Please model this.
Amino acid sequence: MKDAGFIIASYVVTFASIGLFSFAVLRRSRAAGRDIRPEDRPWS
Amino acid sequence: MVVNDDSLGAPSGDAGLDLSPRGVDPTFSRRGKRKWLPIVVLGLVVASAGVIVTQFLTSAIDYYCNVDEIGAKDGCDAGRRLRVQGTVDRGSVVDDGTVTAFSITFNDVSMNVRYEGDPGGIFKECIPVVVHGTLQGDTFAGDRIEVKHSNEYMADNPDRVENDLDSPEGSGCSAPA
Amino acid sequence: MSTRVARDRVTGTPFTRGLGIVTILGIVWLVIFGLFVTPADVNQGETVRIMYAHVPGAWLAYLAFIVTALSSAMYLWRRTRSLTWDRIAGASAEIGVLFMGISLVTGSLWGRLTWGTFWTWDARLTTTAFLFVTYIGYLAVRGLGGTHHQRARRSAVLALLAVLEIPLVHFSVEIWNSLHQEASVAGNTDVTMDGLMLFTLFLGVIVFTLMYVWMLLHRQRALTLEDMLDDSGLDRALAARRAEAGVS
Model:
């Protein structure tokens, strides 16, 4: 594939940044969730 | 957790409670140590917004003209910096290693272009380009070339007859007039 | 209890878990189609593959910012005032900034290959960069402190102003002469697109929408937990003062 470096880089940037964001959200919510009992969470 | 404390507003037992503000206790305010961050970010945001607007306005000074508008449309005068749009003429590209010379056409008016260096991108004959530079005599001295992309998305089929590809959107790619 | 903490998914529910699985499968499908199954373009060559990440990223960023504006309006409207709307607005703006950033980076990689330049101060690019920076400013304003309702009111007003930039970005290509092509699929331009390319572009939009919903649910819930923690911090402070004063 011509220009494979740029094309693959664009896919890597896309999904890696989304993955990192998701991971950060889950990690922060896990930290916050330690102090809040499951029955106090409105969605559970 | 959030306790619904009725005693707060009641005159009962809380009378002697000291509610005067004190220094922020780091164990109660998780964001305390990051208070400066939003302010720094806001400063950067305002600065970059300023840069973006300035850059846009200074670039807009390079008037955006089609080849046939040079000397005809207000602002598209020879001698000033312009951005000129046209289609690269068939067979006009001559690259001697340091200078690329070609001509571009728009609405049957064509113009010679000299560009120092390799244009890059998907530059080739018969595609619309935008050249930044100044018209000197009858040759446009370009220092930047951008390839304008068309709105056609077609599978690259090796069997397709070559002629089909050569006139995107009826832009009239032809030998120089 | 401690053994259950490890399995505690906090912001997850059966719905988000199912959605997450579908989303990952969608991503795999999109990557396979985008990188291998779709044909190269007659003008752009292989570079056209970047479109399948760039265009959905931009669209979903617009959508995210519009959701931010709508939830902000819901917060400002007295009858529906709730901090939940404010947290949806904040979560959506974060994801919008992420998507817009993706769209800018992939767009500049594409621009280098196609136009021959990473960046140019062109109408579409400039207005997009301005929109991106505006929403980073919006997120900074959310972090300025104050009570939850102060934060909500302040940012809601800003969100309603910022969303007005979206039509400017969208129509910039028509207002000013532009290097950027006109809107790829929507709009009344005579775009022609190969069927499989068009399908993959819409697949990209669907996959990005799934990712958006998944992230929005989790982020909104995480913000709820953080707000609850702030409140419980206040409660704990009051309890400490009470203990100090000898009040039972």
Notes: Residues 1-6 of chain C have pLDDT under 50 and may be disordered.
